[in-house]
Amino acid sequence: MSSSGHCDTEFTEFTEFLEEVRVCREDDTAVVALADDLSGAAEAAALLRLPARLVLHADELGVSGEAGEAVVVDLDSRYLDDGAAADAVRTVLRAVGRQSPAARTGARADVTASRAFRAVNSPESYGSPLWFKKCDSLLRGPVGAEATAFAEGAELLVIATALPAARRVVRGGVVLLDGVPLHASPAWRAEERAAPRSVAEALAPLPTADVPLEAVRQGPLALAGRFRELAARGRHPVCDAETDTDLTVIAGAAALLGHGARLLGSGGLAAALGRRLAPRRAHGSPAGAGPTAARPPSTAPFPTRPTTVPADAGPVPSLPSTAAGPSAVPPATGPTTPSGALGPASLPSAAGRAPARSVVPPTASGPAAAGAETPAGAFVRVAGEDGWPAGAGGVARPLLVVAGSAEPVVAEQVGRLVAAGARHLPLAPGELAGAEGVVLPELATGTVTVLSVDGSDGVRPGAARAIVAGLARAVSAVPGRPDLVLTGGETARRVLDSLGVTTLWPAGEIHHGAVHCRTADGRSVVTRPGSFGGPDSFVRIAAALRPRHPSQQGDTQ
User: Fold this and answer.
1) Within a 13 Å sphere around the CA of 203, how many CA atoms are in the beta-carbon half?
2) How far apart are CA 315 and CA 302, in angstroms?
3) Both ends of the chain: CA-CA distance in Å?
4) How far is Cα 440 from Cα 356, in angstroms, rounded to an integer?
5) How much is the pLDDT for 480?
6) Would the CA dihedral through 418, 424, 430, 432 be positive or negative?
7) What DSSP element (H or E) covers 39?
């Protein structure tokens, strides 16, 4: 039999086995996922396709997640040293613990005797959480220290860092970006150290062994056997993958090993895991474990409009560039909101500190001037329609887009949003990083405003984190609790920390990596890695959050 025929036979047998698993699985297994930054955590939560709760602090985690729930923890460890990052992982591992097995009643003898029932309900795995560790597909952060800590207590760590949706694949144990090895690409130009030459190098000191693409494509049963062989040698498999199908096979092979195997990988592997877990919802769930189980208290469901992955999503760093020059966000071009739509806001001065500068842009006639055409679907919202939460008195909240990167693609994203009718507030990095801070104007209800870092005069090397911190302070002082779009994991985390947000409930993806969440008070928050999204990313996000009501399609006001 040819290798292709053998793989087809293996895959058919595996598909039949999975169908048995879907029928036999006791649907009470919690999924616990860890990520090193907030945008990655939100991405994983959306891709797992289960009711999810995104926790920003381990002390908010308490016990293991509820039945059928995915609990995703943002470790906020991307910029920690190795020791602190490993400790953050161990803290969550200890906090979660094991769930007590529930009584099994009413199971048919023919079902309990099946190999599928034994595989998914064995004493060794029943009641244990399924563990997943989200890592950056560009291998940034203390990947090795976190992986080593995450492997502690596991029989095996199955690793697959490819992200085919963003044209990032792994071949021969090396990450390739559009065919270019990671260490030869510009993807790490904003990092303070050199890019690793292989996944194994990034994961050191974790003992690993590469699993070539040929082995992955032999099928899940053969691959699971390969994993067992490596586990017996004390090695953790680093899998090549070029397609989502490859990642689905890897996730399936890991499932055959039971809960003693943990998974570590990019959002691509999270999506593969989600494809395997999602059918559990279709086969029924215990009471309270359905799609509404992870909603925040006292809020109505609201829609997220999924869209396709942009073809031009490219690998750009997610933090502000440390280089001066053309990557800066250009001055605002295009319409602003009508005169009187915005007013100054004050920020109480700290003792002994001069008042912060107030940013109040000049007023001008807006896009609603006579004869002007508002782009279809852009930024027109009717409060309370389609379940979307409204602000005080039933009036739509303002939408504030915080662009935490000064890379060229973000500049274009900002430009397109401004051209569509948003107000642009470019903020000087020196003022954001300074002690005085920046005061933003009060935002009018129903408006869209975008903040960006103006790097036209250059950004001082090493100042990125101080700039992000200043940006977070400014956003947290804006009155009126606007809905938020936050790009870059560091920016998103610092803003939410400043606002006192500790838990998010994901609602869905607007486009790849742009995850729509809600807070306990009903506010919408969209997070997105800085390296994701095409030129129209902000426009698509704003259009999804501010859908144009059919009755207003002809109204340009």
Assistant:
1) 30
2) 31
3) 68
4) 10
5) 82
6) negative
7) helix 38-47
Distance CA 79, CA 460 (A): 18
Nearest to 263, CA basis, from 171, 169, 183, 157? 157
Residue 451, beta-bridge partner list: 402, 425
| Higher-pLDDT residue of 527, 556 | 527
Q: How far is Cα 76 from Cα 361, in angstroms, rounded to an integer?
A: 34
Q: Where are the alpha helices (DSSP H) in 453-488?
A: 464-476
Helix/strand/coil (H, E, C) string of 124-145? CCCCCCEEEEECCCCCCCCHHH
CA-to-CA dists, residue 468 to 48, 57, 380, angstroms:
29, 20, 30
Helix then strand then coil, % of the chain, to nearest 5: 35, 15, 50
Q: What is the pLDDT of residue 395?
A: 55
Is residue 320 packed enough to be buried (19+ CB in 10 Å), middle (13-18) or exposed (0-12)? buried
Strand partners, 130: 31
What's the mean pLDDT in 372-392? Answer: 35
Distance of CA 525 to the CA centre of its chain: 12
What predicted TM-score, i.e. pTM, was given to this entire model? 0.72
Amino acid in the structure at residue 520:
A
All residues at 6 or more sequence positions from 243 whose CB lies less than 8 Å from its CB, including other chains: 164
- C-alpha 158/C-alpha 151 separation (Å) is 10
How many residues appear in the chain? 557
In the predicted structure, residue 113 carries a pLDDT above the cut 70 = no
| Contact criterion met (CB below 8 Å) for 269 and 254 | no
Structure tokens at 461: 């090397």
Burial 40-79 (b: 16+ CB within 10 A, else e): bbbbbbbbbbbbbbbbbebeebeebbbbbbbbbbbbbbbb
| DSSP state for residue 524 in the 8-state scheme | E
Give the pLDDT of residue 295: 54
Are 138 and 166 spatial neighbours (Cβ–Cβ below 8 Å)? no
Tokens describing residue 399:
């939408």
Q: What is the mean pLDDT of the chain?
A: 73
- For residue 290, pLDDT beyond 60: no
Which of 498, 446, 448, 500 has its CA nearest to residue 469? 498
Burial class (CB in 10 A: 0-12, 13-18, 19+), 251: buried
The two three-digit tokens of residue 496, written as one number: 């939410």
Sign of CA dihedral 335, 338, 339, 344: negative
Sequence-distant (≥ 6) Cβ neighbours of residue 26 within 8 angstroms: 102, 104, 120, 121, 126
Query: Tell me, what's the pLDDT at 305?
Result: 36
Q: What CA–CA distance (Å, rounded) separates 514 from 527?
A: 6
Q: How confident is the model at residue 279 (pLDDT cuts 50, 70, 90)?
A: low
What whole-number distance in Å separates Cα of residue 538 and Cα of residue 514?
10
pLDDT of 277 reads 85
Q: How far is CA 28 from CA 60, 103, 281, 286, 491, in A?
A: 21, 11, 11, 8, 35
Nearest partner of 532 among 468, 488, 495, judged by Cα: 488
Give residue 501's identity as a one-letter amino acid code.
V
